[in-house]
Amino acid sequence: MSYNFFRSWIERYRIYEDGSCKVDSSNGAIEGFKPGPETDKQIIRSFFVPKICNQCDNPPCVQVCPVGATYKSPDGIVLVDSDYCIGCRYCIQACPYGARFLHPETRTAEKCTFCYHRLVKGLIPACVEVCPTQARIFGEVNKKASTLVRFMRMNKIGILKPALNTEPKVYYANLDMEVN
Amino acid sequence: MEEIVRHLTPLLQEVTGYIYPNEIELHWSLLIVIYPYITGLVAGAFILASLVKVFNVKELQPVYRIALLTALAFMLVATLPLLAHLGHPEKSFEIFLTPNMTSAMAMFGFVYAWYLMAVLFLEIWFDYRKDLVLWANASTGIKRWFYRLISLYSNDISDKAVAFDNKAEKVVTILGIPSAFLLHGYVGFIFGSVKANPWWSSVLMPIVFLFSAIVSGIALVLLIYMIITPFRSKQLDKACIDKLTSFLFYAMIVDFSLEILDFIHRIYESEESIHILAQLVSGKLFFSLIVVQVLIGMVIPLLFIAVTKLFKTPFELRKILYFFSAILIQVGIFATRWNVVIGGQLFSKSFRGLTVYKMTLLGIEGLLVSIAIMLLPLVILYILFNILPPWREAHGTLSKRHIVHRSFARRLSRH
Fold first, then answer.
1. CA separation, residue B32 to residues A11, A64, A157, A167, B344 (Å)
2. pLDDT tens digit string along B27-72?
3. Strand, helix or coil at B209?
4. Distance separating alpha carbons of residues B205 and B92, to the nearest angstrom
5. Which of B65, B154, B383, B388 has the fewest other C-beta atoms within 10 Å?
6. What is the ipTM of this complex?
7. Distance (Å, whole) CA B304 – CA B322
């Protein structure tokens, strides 16, 4: 089975003793990962990185949308109004994280919305809810004394592609420098 | 859903390295290659025309109207590839109704409308007004009414009125030069302002687009002039095509220098993306960039024209060299657009891998539709040449006295 478009995917990083790095995410890892090909090289680090829309505070996708179909909601989440989207795909080009795609059926732009339909009901995003190891934490960054704020204070926090000044609101703890 | 995305599976086989899972298929295809190519021809042809009016380059007078009509013919189809490419073309009017002011693309409608209405139509109208009046007077029936209509029922062809036409035309042209720069510089900006894409993101992009536009526009007008003149059993104006190729030559030198500057700058700055871009240029883009764009589309025509400048060459040989140079330049500039649009999407924004572009033959984004869109302006141009003949001998030659005589004669014959 093959889907080929992803709101969310998992990347596997394998860093070898010679410094080379192999990344893969076969079919977005929806069927998990297969063992890699046998090599003589020793793996020195390996880890998984989940990817979703970064809900940038300075979103390039919103900036470029010609009709204002993609916008930042008052609570800071970047959404797409498929009634307005004309399917020009400029936002897909502008996203540095590859988080957007053109839905093949609606022919409008699509992406992760932090499960906005759940948030408005007071629920947390589905991926956070079901994660068996609680690797994902969701909350308000500006709210004091939340699990998220406490976690961010206690850990080394990184964001993806900081040089682009997109100001993501998806944070990674102990982010490896190989991740981009 | 599975049916729709099945075509991605063979692409997946040719992906090298790691790409983000949403990057397998290119989002902007052949239609978006054609779009900057066409607008470039418009801007280039117009800038060539303005050389005659604003900078008073007398030698180019024979191609002045050809250049204007060429710009118009291509301008009329410039929106087609964009419309055809949209997921929802029926909603495209939203760009005018609810434009997002921070979006470069939203400004397209306004830049386009301004250029077409305020510049091209006005300039052509003022330039042809006297002739339209004369043609209307000289023809009968539907044709007469047609010319009357497009002359907007003006009939004053006194010296004073024609002097006003010329003055107005000059003002429009002076406004038109920055407008033409805006039109194509803006297309460059659409690509140059995408910070997520290191192949596009460059402040030089609008300027490189502009000069390549001038190159392609001049070369196209040269081609059209050289092809239609023999068909009309007329002689090519030697001074005109020598001058045209001179301007073409200078524009090419500036264009090529800018491209080399961009290239050197990228290598010298050697940013994070340099490894994947080097892999791209030496691999998947080698043929279209190094061989077609640089060698066939730039170096060889530059050499051809340089030969005609350095050595005394007979006109017959010069003509052949000019003609082939102009064709090679068109191929080269098309490759330039291809390398920007397609090349910019072949590498992953993770900078770890490359994907592949497979052109389809059928379908709205296929080769056939693109060929049709490219042929359409030539059909329009043929019609325009018939309605508004740009040749010197077609300029309204009937004097007022003739018209009086004719109507007098007609009245006589009725009796």
1. 31, 17, 40, 30, 12
2. 999 999 999 999 999 999 999 998 888 888 999 999 999 999 999 9
3. helix
4. 26
5. B383
6. 0.94
7. 8
Whether the CA torsion A81, A86, A92, A95 is positive or negative: it is negative
Q: 3-state class of A172 per DSSP?
A: strand
Give the model's confidence band at B403: pLDDT under 50 very low, under 70 low, under 90 confident, else very high: very low
Query: What share of chain A has pLDDT > 70, as a percent?
Result: 98
Interface test with B, best of A64, A166, A167 (most B CBs within 10 A): A64
pLDDT of residue B399: 43
Backbone angles phi, psi at A45, to 5 degrees: -140, 145
In angstroms, how far is the first alpha carbon of chain A from the final one? 27
pTM (2 d.p.): 0.91
Buried b (16+ CB within 10 A) or exposed e, B110-138: ebbebbbeebbebbbbbbbbbbbbbbbbb
Q: DSSP states of B273-316 as a string?
A: THHHHHHHHHTTTIIIIIIIIIIIIIIHHHHHHHHHHHS---HH
Distances in Å between the alpha carbon of A171 and those of A56, A151, B180, B409? Answer: 11, 11, 45, 89
Q: Looking at chain B from residue 67 to 106, which residues have their Cβ under 8 Å from any Cβ of chain A?
A: 82, 85-89, 91-92, 94-95, 98-100, 102-106
Buried b / exposed e along B63-78 (16+ C-beta atoms within 10 A): bbbbbbbbbbbbbbbb
d(C-alpha A16, C-alpha B406), whole Å: 93
CA distance A9 to B288: 34
